[in-house]
Amino acid sequence: MILLHGDIVYSESAEKLTVRENSYLSVDDGKVEGIYGRVPEKYKGVPVEDYGRDLIIPAFSDLHVHAPQFEQRGIGMDLLLSDWLSTYTFPEEAKFRSPEYAEKIYSLFVKDLLRQGTMHAAIYATLHLEATDILFELLEKAGMDALVGKVNMDVNSPDFLTETTKESLRDTETFLERHAGGGRVKPILTPRFAPTCSAELMKGLGELARKYRCGVQTHLVESKWEAAEAVRLFPDCCSDAEIYEKAGLLDTDVSIFGHVIFPTEEDYRILRKHGSFAVHCPDATNNVIAGIAPVRTEQEREIRVALGSDVGAGHGLGIFKQAARAVQLSKLKEFYEPDVSKTISFANAFDMATRVGGSLFGKVGTFGEGYDFDALVIGGTEDPEIPMDAALRLERFCYTGDDRNIRARYLKGRKLGEE
Amino acid sequence: MILLHGDIVYSESAEKLTVRENSYLSVDDGKVEGIYGRVPEKYKGVPVEDYGRDLIIPAFSDLHVHAPQFEQRGIGMDLLLSDWLSTYTFPEEAKFRSPEYAEKIYSLFVKDLLRQGTMHAAIYATLHLEATDILFELLEKAGMDALVGKVNMDVNSPDFLTETTKESLRDTETFLERHAGGGRVKPILTPRFAPTCSAELMKGLGELARKYRCGVQTHLVESKWEAAEAVRLFPDCCSDAEIYEKAGLLDTDVSIFGHVIFPTEEDYRILRKHGSFAVHCPDATNNVIAGIAPVRTEQEREIRVALGSDVGAGHGLGIFKQAARAVQLSKLKEFYEPDVSKTISFANAFDMATRVGGSLFGKVGTFGEGYDFDALVIGGTEDPEIPMDAALRLERFCYTGDDRNIRARYLKGRKLGEE
Does the pLDDT of residue B128 top 70, yes or no? Predict the structure, then answer.
């Protein structure tokens, strides 16, 4: 049992933040037990970790990130997507044929995730089996919640980064077999996107989904080109999402769709039907994709919208920054498409960044009773000159803060950096 | 005489960066003397400050920033402009009636400007004379280049933040008289924007401009509302810029127009004719203004476009971040207005952030011979895994870096933090 004192802020809905200033949060066996205005009688004598007026908030969830692109953050950002992929991304991903390289870069990646306050993530590796195993094990060792995918790409990809259909299915099955079971880190099917997967591969992945009861993550209608190309290549489907539905990839477990910028009504219907996640990646969208996801419309259609860093198209792992950027982009979307979308509130953005994203992984992302205590202590955003309530201080952190403001991290109730 | 060694990057045009890797820069009497691939014979024996492969770049220029809004960074960012102003900005600015408060906040502001690598700035104070004097003196003491304005607002402003026309002109003249002369910090006329200035006030400011030969800064066509309201209130003018031209405010010295998001052809014509600066403030534009300035069109019309943080509508003083954001917004503008604008290169954005902005202040902002040596040493962006040339490392700094990457600062040849 531990007790923490501070200004506790978390989200229970997209409508408003729940704020419990100057309060006590009790953690029992790694899980939130309760929040109290004063120390309850039954806990008298339990030592209090007192964070004063610092904020205690849930850790963040990143539902779309490419671990092998970690090293290429922030370069070539003024290029077109196709040039950026061919100049930087594909050559970098090809390096992960080396397990030594994978070990080195994936270690840095996992360390930086935690540094930036992200404790739950849905992650793309590369097509390389051994490197993907290494990433999987590093995440397990860190104790995080994660879904990890060996990427599938057997067509329309550079020679040095293509696998045969047979190799792709064989290595994917090996990956699923190796990591079957119920740990915090789970394998997930990861067809890169429809244009890089043959119909035969997609069918085979559907069979693996049924056999291993696993979920799927991919990029969906991330550009007008991709939306059109997907249905051109899969002519029996009339929307991008239908490709995955028809392959049987949406029936067995979670489905996570990155970007979802140009969905059709059919895409909306399929995502809602299967309880899929749409992942909004503001910086990435802005850097190399162009276009703004219809977050408000997705929410109105009762689709779960979470946030993603999409490193390396996004240039940093901090999901708190993406919360701020989500508000910014919603303002621009309202400006350019006033009939389609309105500005979202900061509370809504924070909800996506924590509670909604966390719901992919079970009871994480908020401070309800019984939820895993995955939390951050945020300081240095208070101001002696402008009294700011905890919600404003949280907003200021997301807009102006960085990892220096994260003064402590708790993962499953355990304070990191102290073992 | 000092010699610095490192990877030297600066801008001579919007087209491309000038990169001199592994080179030596000589500084004589605070000014750039030359750049050499090896130590010239004549400088043998001069001690070298060796920064290895760190970048040596010109310091940044911020051409639109509100010093009294420094404390309110990053709060209320999901509000509409009008609500944000009435809830946070106007009450905060009103506090600067207290010289003690001004001293405290303006000290923090000046310190953070330098921390973020900005050494030249065009700054709005408030309407308060004494507080504005304090800001002026703090900047002089810091040794920076700056233009500082006492804000004018005699109509359409909250009761607690309005002056009479007479007070406004009297205090402005006092401010100009006190600070006449040729230091690095200069006074500048600062009508907040046309809607907060009566015709009589605007006329009086024109007379002061002629009498004191000083320049002007203001907000121009920052929103559709403002653009329409300005010409409604000044019915003898057919564009926002014409209000200032007719008042005689553009004839005597520099003119700096913040935002310039919805210019008419007449605005373009006037800005070009008077050699005015248009200041692009990407984050601010995105946070509370909505709309994207036509940077490329302005450049094509041969208008000088610089960058501004516009704190507090912008949430941070780092102009390097605004360079990255300028590229991002140009991508969105191309997406939404493909006929009007194309993506700008990172080199173009860096040029705005340094050389173009610096040109307001004389020979600063680049490393030509005889330019003031106002410079930053940038480290921690190199990568052992991906060999990156100096231009890419600079881009990475602007996208992913923060003040920790600024390892040394030189102002007029003097290394800061060492006296």
Answer: yes
pTM above 0.90, yes or no: yes
Contacting B residues, span 32-71, partner chain A, CB-CB under 8 Å: 71
- Give the mutation candidate from A399, A404, A405 for the B interface (greatest B CB count, under 10 A): A399
Kind of pairing between the strands at A48-58 and A60-66: unpaired
**Sheet strands (E) in B76-170:** 118-124, 145-149, 151-152
Helix (H) or strand (E) run with residue A227 in it: helix A224-233
Q: What is the rounded distance in angstroms from the CA atom of residue A236 to the CA atom of residue A28?
A: 53
Q: Do A385 and B71 touch (CB under 8 A)?
A: yes
Domain ranges in chain B are 2-58+366-415, 60-361
- Model confidence band, residue B181 (pLDDT cutoffs 50, 70, 90): confident
pLDDT on residue B112: 97
Inspect the interface and report whether the beta carbons of A105 and B76 lie closer than 8 Å: no
Name which of B104, B315, B396 is nearest A400 (Cβ-Cβ).
B315
By C-alpha distance, which of A58, A59, A64 is closest to A309?
A64
CB pairs < 8 Å spanning A and B: 117
List pLDDT tens digits, range A382-418: 877 787 899 999 999 999 999 999 999 999 999 999 6
Residue in B73, B287, B327 closest to A77 by CB: B327
Question: What's the mean pLDDT in B152-175?
Answer: 97
A327 in contact with B, Cβ within 8 Å: yes
Check: CB of residue B346 under 8 Å from CB of residue B327.
yes
Average pLDDT over residues B341-363: 96
Please name which of A324, A329, A343 lies closest in space to residue A287, comparing C-alpha atoms. A329
Closest C-alpha to A110, from A149, A67, A145: A67
* Contact call for residues B147 and B123 (beta carbons, < 8 A): yes
Asked if B400 and A316 come within 8 Å (Cβ–Cβ), the reply is yes
Backbone angles phi, psi at B64, to 5 degrees: -160, 105
What ipTM describes this predicted complex? 0.96
Joined together, the tokens standing for residue A398 give 């997301």
Q: Chain B interface, mutation test: which of A310, A332, A345, most B Cβ atoms within 10 Å?
A: A332
Q: Amino acid letter at B249?
A: L
Question: What's the topology of domain A60-361?
Answer: TIM Barrel (3.20.20)
Query: What tokens does A249 get?
Result: 């990839």
Mean pLDDT throughout B253-266?
97
Confidence (pLDDT) at A419: 52
pLDDT of residue B386: 80
Q: Which CATH number fits domain A2-58+366-415: 3.30.2160.10, 2.30.40.10, 3.30.420.10, 3.20.20.70?
A: 2.30.40.10
A332 touches chain B (CB under 8 A): yes
Query: Which amino acid is present at B34?
Result: G
CB contacts, 8 Å: B336 with chain A: 336
Q: Within an 8 Å CB–CB cutoff, is residue A383 touching chain B?
A: yes
CB contact under 8 Å between A315 and B400, yes or no, is yes
Contact B95, B140 (CB under 8 A): no
Å between A336 CA and nearest CA of chain B: 7
For A310, residues 6+ apart whose C-beta sits below 8 A from its C-beta are A64, A65, A66, A258, A259, A279, A281, A283, A284, A285
What is the three-class DSSP state of A235?
Answer: coil
Q: Cα A254 vs. chain centroid, distance in angstroms? A: 13
Nearest CB to A77: which of B76, B332, B346?
B346
- Residue type at position B81: L
Say what percent of chain B tops pLDDT 70. Answer: 100
Q: Are B258 and B311 in contact (CB under 8 A)?
A: no
pLDDT for B418: 66
Nearest in space to B74 (alpha carbons), one of B88, B60, B94 = B88
Inter-chain contact A77–B392, Cβ cutoff 8 Å?
no
Nearest to B74 among A73, A77, A395 (CB): A395
Across the interface, whether the CB atoms of A327 and B283 are under 8 A apart is answered no
